[in-house]
Amino acid sequence: MRPGVGGAHRSRERWLTASAPLTLTAAAAVLLGGPPLGLAVPAAVLVAAAASGLLHAVWLFKVAGQGTSAASLTALGTGLGAAAACAAWPPTAPFAGPAAALLLVAGLLALPGVTASPAAALRRGLDGICVALWKFLTLLVLVLDQSGPPSRTVFVTCLLATTGITVAVVSGVRAPFPRGAALTAAGGVALVVLALAIVPLLPAEPARHDAWLLSAGGLLVLGSVLVWAGACRSVYGHTSSPRVIDGTLIGDPLLVAPVLAGAAAVLYTLVSHGRIGQPAMVVGAAAVLVVVLREIVEALATRRFSGELGAAREAFATIVAGSSDVILVLGKDLAVRWQSPAAARQFGLSDQEVLGRPFVRLVHAADVATVRRSLSGRSSPAPVRTRICDGFGVWRHVEYTVSDLRDDPSVEGVVVHLRDAAERLELERTLERAARADPLTGLANRGTLLRELDGGTGFLVTVGLDGFAGVNDLHGNDVGDALLVAVAARIRAAIAPDDLAARLHGDEFAVFTRVDKVHAYTLATRLLGELGEPYPMPGTVLQLSAGIGLAPVAGEPEDSLRRADLALRRAKRTGRGQVEWHDEAAEEAYVRRATLEQHLPQAVERGELDLAFHPVYDLVEGHPIGVEALLRWRHPRLGTIPPRETLTVARELGLTAPINDWVLARAARQLSLWQHEGYRLWISVNVAFDDFVAPTFPARLSLALDSHQVDPRDFIIELAERELGTDLERVAEPLATVRAIGVRTALDGFGSGATSLAHLRRLPTDLLKVDRTLFTASPGGGVAPIIDVVVNLGRRLGVTVIAHGLEAGEHLELVRRAGCRYGQGHYYGQPAPAERIEAALVRQRTW
After folding, report:
1. Most CB within 10 Å of its CB: which of 29, 228, 792, 837?
2. Alpha-carbon gap, residue 606 to 102, rounded angstroms
3. C-alpha angle 595-601-604 in degrees, rounded to nearest 5
């Protein structure tokens, strides 16, 4: 339903429902109330009829004002108004009656539910006039002329009434389906016309006069109701009807029967009376003329329709002839009844080879069952694939769709749209090969390899080329691609037919073999030798080596590929031209390292980093004088990660600077808290060498100290001696810069690296943490005396010496005798959180 139409539709339904009761109620009120008021019954009848006609005329004008079929409704309303005028004032009936009848018939023919076009309305009017004239001729010769020529009033009234009633009846009966509304309107028009014909012919006898007048009033009331109801339902309930041709007069029994009856009546009158009257001759001539005119109009319409049909057929033939699709029409027995010209052009199938044969005879025997199922069901838009034998005896791949039109009278068959599917099938195969194979080498791709590994058993061999990147850099990508194709060819030639070779990505390949462990290793060594041979290329000869990893195929395909890839990485780390098996320990180390690399960038945001503090003691007085801040990464799954491992991963990821900044800020914050609580001690922080020599480090260090208002003299930067190497000139200037800020520096692990005692004079450092190897027992059982030398040298250079690594009481006694006052080690406890350090500091607030 269109927007805004619902309310109007319900209003129309109420009008139609209330029309008859309102009209009958009004008529009854006039008939019953007229005599008490001095109004005679005949006059009351005429008033009731006039009121009914006028009421429905007004309603029709109101509907016409909405713009829907305005012409036809206006004509019907005007006709009902004129009929009401005839009822209200009978003397006007001879003049207003014919006009009312003409308007009613014209409005009926123009209704959308009665005729489809003006031409159809003209044909329908001629049909009615033709039948009416022959019926009137029968009435004239058999009834009216029997007692002498009728009067002019009787002749004209009967002629017009017969014509109007007949046109209305013919229009309603021949209206397109559904014709309920048209029949209702036509019946109403016929009743109103009959009522208008009674009024001029009222007899003079009072009894008959009143009876005829009552009949005319009743017909007018009922007719107006039917006209209103039929017109409204025809206008609002009309749906478009297919175009039809009425046919000739001779082919329609409804029309030819009155003609034959009129001819028989004339013949009977001639035989019985020997003559017919002049009016009958005139009416007969007019009837014959109308028949001829009707046939001429129908012939013209048929000719025009035939021309349009021929043009449409030619257009259809042109479209079908130019189409690459073959169209077949199958009969109800599924035999080919018609085929389009494309069948001969596309498949070489002539009409003699196809027409009359069952369609399944054309398809491959293996596809017959599928084809029968597709033809036995209803229409299916999904294409069905099959093979048919063309005119040259070759089986061709085709696809077709089915339209089941067996219930359509114009087709009464199954329409099959068939097209050649060879190109489409080849394209699908090409796409499938492209989806399964590497486009450069023709080997299987990673996805295909994973599908083969799923549920398979055997071993996976991964091959990684060494030096391929240099080939691309020196000789270009074209030579590099040619080299990969040559490598793929050698791999394909070295494996068994049941093995699957694949290119994973770049210069890495894989082979899935279903042999045992020994033969898998033999295959790997054979591949190693084949791939190490020279590669002749245009203008040069290239040499490559390869690393190969081996892993058993088990579990998920991705897991098997990951294990083989780990083995390949291990082979490449070992050196060129190596074959390595997968190792569980190596895999665990790799997984651990990969996990750390993935999680370290977000460790600060997740709050996983922390500091542990290791105190430095005064060995004489026995209390801590400072603490070393040690980085701890509390990984949620791997536990606490050692600082060295954390910093190694950070260095590879380029995260050394941000992690050091976090450590500096957190250490400065903790030192500030302790000093505000009255604890007198310093704090030291280990800094990676590559970050320490960065130009931005002094500024970042100053920012951390200033942010927490820490005295730079209480902050110490430690550098590991093993990271310095022999390049002391590179570190000397950054050390001096840091000391200029006021921050002290320390050299950690002295004695474990390459720094000699002579180099201490060149390093601007404040503290020296000696390694435990300088004060522990030698393998021969004696005591290493180098700790004495280091302590004495430190005194002369003004460097504070700290014995690092004290683990036993004998270590403590040894360094004390050597003159070392400060020490650090597990003898005093493990590195601990800030809370445990504070508990140890409670005993000494000041010193």
Report:
1. 228
2. 96
3. 115
